[in-house]
Specification:
The chain has 422 residues and is α+β, with helices and mostly antiparallel strands. The chain has four domains: 95 residues, Rossmann fold (3-Layer(aba) Sandwich), CATH 3.40.50.20; 67 residues, Dna Ligase, domain 1, CATH 3.30.1490.20; 125 residues, ATP-grasp fold, B domain (D-amino Acid Aminotransferase, Chain A, domain 1), CATH 3.30.470.20; 76 residues, Phosphoribosylglycinamide synthetase, C-terminal domain (Glycinamide Ribonucleotide Synthetase, Chain A, domain 4). 30% of the residues lie in helices and 27% in strands. Helix 3 crosses helix 5 and helix 7 packs across helix 11. The N and C termini lie far apart (43 Å).
């Protein structure tokens, strides 16, 4: 009998994790909490508050899951893994003290500094006047970040100093991000393409996953506001696995060692957001979980058993786990609600998902959907992730956009330049 796995979360990343786990020989059954209509097509869903450690652990204990995979950052920061492991339940993801590497951007910067990992200059403060003074230390464009979790919307990149000052005031005076923005990180802008490198960690060692390129801005040509991600592709020319192996020694192992030294060993997925600057890779941020939408392109390339890898990370050592990749490329195009990442309407009827999903090489991952009776409707800012596989990035891109064109609802929005020219 294979493992029974519970996936925590309700987004596109969680659907992709559930989909890939369901195809793993070591996994017998995949269930989710709270899940979404896409995950419901894989296995039972459970109506549980993902951010409530006791409720999640009660469910896992009652139903006897062999592994719990926590997808989003908020449950990790809330201590879901701490509660699960305290009850002897194997859980993939870091405990809350280690998850602070995503939960607090200033903590992440402190870890980078202590570990000697390359990053940009920064100032962290809760004082408006200090923040305004800090802006004067940097040059355009100015980067203003909410220290805490802000659902991917807490970063402002400002071309004008007055705009940067307004960004400071939005957070510290107007309270736009609530407690998450009560401290700000003002940091040096790093010029160059952004890269996402994922490492599955066991506290001391790391297995790197295929790097991906993510598109954060809402509009074509990297215009508009920052979002949680509007698309991604892999492999990245000049930045594939063979090109990033040195990051084990430069970034991952020193950071793991520093966290362990502090008594907070990191088990789970450590996501390094890097900028490939003219002076080499420099760290932009860390996340404590699989990225979204990068997961939706990375996992289709994984040829080996995801269940074995995540279980080894949660319970022992990843050293002897075989991780292999296929030769395909993958592209995902995010279909979003009109107005995202700001105000948007929910409940709009969606057409064409089955038609898109029926194309060979295409998988549509549900990110913000729900069922209204038998009708699929929008239920979030990022609604669907249309992922396609192909012999090359260009082939996968063509297929992804062909599939995306079959899906519609009033006000659907997507970028038209994901993976263009690759």
């Amino acid at each position: 009998m294979g493992r029974r796995v519970l996936v925590i979360g309700s987004g596109g990343r969680e659907h992709a994790l559930g989909w890939r786990l369901a195809g793993s020989p070591s996994v017998d059954r995949v269930e989710s909490a709270p899940g979404n209509p896409g995950l419901a097509s894989i296995g039972p869903t459970h109506d549980v508050d993902a951010d409530d450690p006791a409720a999640v652990a009660d469910l896992a204990e009652r139903l006897g899951f062999d592994l719990v995979v926590v997808g989003p950052e908020a449950p990790l920061v809330a201590g879901v893994v701490d509660e699960l492991t305290s009850r002897g339940i194997a859980a993939f993801g870091p405990r809350a003290p280690a998850a602070a590497i995503e939960g607090s951007k200033s903590f992440a910067k402190e870890i980078m500094l202590a570990a000697g990992a390359p990053t940009g200059g920064w100032v962290a403060t809760s004082d408006r006047d200090v923040a305004h003074e800090a802006l004067e230390r940097f040059v355009a464009p100015w980067v203003v970040k909410a220290d805490g979790l802000a659902a991917g919307k807490g970063v402002r990149i400002c071309d004008d100093l007055d705009e940067a000052r307004r960004a400071v005031d939005d957070a510290l005076v107007e309270g736009r991000f609530g407690a998450a923005g009560s401290t700000l990180v003002i940091e040096e802008f790093l010029a160059g393409p952004e890269r996402s490198v994922f490492g599955v960690c066991d506290g001391t060692d790391v297995v790197l996953l295929s790097p991906a390129h993510d598109y954060k801005r809402a509009l074509d040509g990297d215009g508009g506001l920052n979002t949680g991600g509007m698309g991604a592709y892999t492999p990245v020319p000049g930045f594939d696995l063979g090109d990033v192996d040195h990051l084990r020694a430069l970034v991952f192992r020193p950071v793991l060692a520093e966290l362990a030294r502090r008594g907070t060993p990191f088990r789970g997925l450590l996501y390094a957001g890097l900028v490939d600057t003219a002076g080499g890779p420099r760290l932009l941020e860390f996340n404590a979980r699989f990225g979204d939408p990068e997961t939706q392109v990375i996992l289709p390339r994984l040829a080996s058993d995801l269940g074995d890898l995540l279980h080894a990370s949660a319970t022992g050592s990843i050293t002897d786990v075989d991780v292999t990749w296929n030769d395909e490329a993958a592209v995902t195009v995010v279909l979003a609600s009109e107005g995202y990442p700001e105000a948007y309407e929910k409940g709009r009827p969606i057409d064409g998902v089955a038609d898109a999903d029926a194309i060979d090489g295409v998988t549509v991952f549900h990110a913000g959907t729900r069922l209204d009776g038998d009708r699929l409707v929008t239920n979030g800012g990022r609604v669907l992730n249309v992922t396609a596989r192909g012999r090359s990035v260009a082939d996968a891109r063509d297929l992804a956009y062909e599939a995306a064109a079959r899906i519609s609802w009033p006000g659907v929005h997507r970028r038209s330049d994901i993976a263009a020219g690759i």
